[in-house]
Design brief:
With 317 residues, the protein is mainly alpha-helical. The chain is 62% helix and 0% strand. It has a domain at 21-218.
Amino acid sequence: MDISMNTPPSEHAPAPPKITHAHKAIEVEGLGLVDLLLRDRPALLTLLDEPPRQREIAKIMLLTLIVSSAIFGATLGAYRGGAQIFFAGFKLPIALLLTAALTTPAFAALNLALRGEATIRRDFNLVLVSLALTSLLLLASAPLFFLAYSREVGYHKVFLLAVSLLGLAGLAGLRLFFQGLTSRPRQPVWSVALPLFALFAMVGAQMSWTLRPFLVRPRTVNVPFVRAIEGGVPEAVYHSLRSAQGIYAARRAEVVDEVRRDVYELSRVEEEIPPLTPAQAPAQAPAQAPAQAPDAAGAWGAASGEDAALSPAFRFP
């Protein structure tokens, strides 16, 4: 007789292995690292502690940063069009790379002084990963700008939109940077994080301000590759806020610069116009009669035909 018995599983059977972030990331390479950056950032942070993977991570994150920021910069330049598309697409990656180059030594020095560890490759990769995430988020916001361009949104409102999205994407990058600091728990953490947050914000803002303009008014005739350093980011944001509300308080220096640019453009136009030949020269206008002298009472005589056609505000006294 065939008797089948269902025996319950043994209580001492080995449990299935727990899948950790390190197991998820161990087979990921190439552009799969970008997918980890978007979907599973803790798994990507575990790879930063593996020296054999650090070179590949640096290469992929650097490529992601350059391509994403170049497309977003070209999107900003499309507001004016023309050469500004290439200028902005070229300068924005440079601004982010200079930020990484200037902040990484300070990051490594603070780690060595306050936490007793110095891993320059991991620190540099953590900075690159944070900036790559910032660039990808900016790239994702590009359709918002094309929507604003299609609806002919004013310059100052587009400028405030760009500043807002840059700030939000930068906060996301700083959040990932802080997660990278806490993934290797050592005390103190905040003593390193707070100075670095301030350093990132100041260096990134200054690099962007030094390499401006990225967003240019469509009516601008000649677009400079970079402008002279004047003012600062807070001042520009303040004036754009007021201008977006219809409050235009033009500064004297801005007015002088506008006049100088207009005079320069007029001088170039005059140089390009060929001189008239004697046959093309208009006939000389007849001499006008001398002005009428005032009468004895001190009042001027009757206005001429041309003077009478003018409004009272523009008539001769």
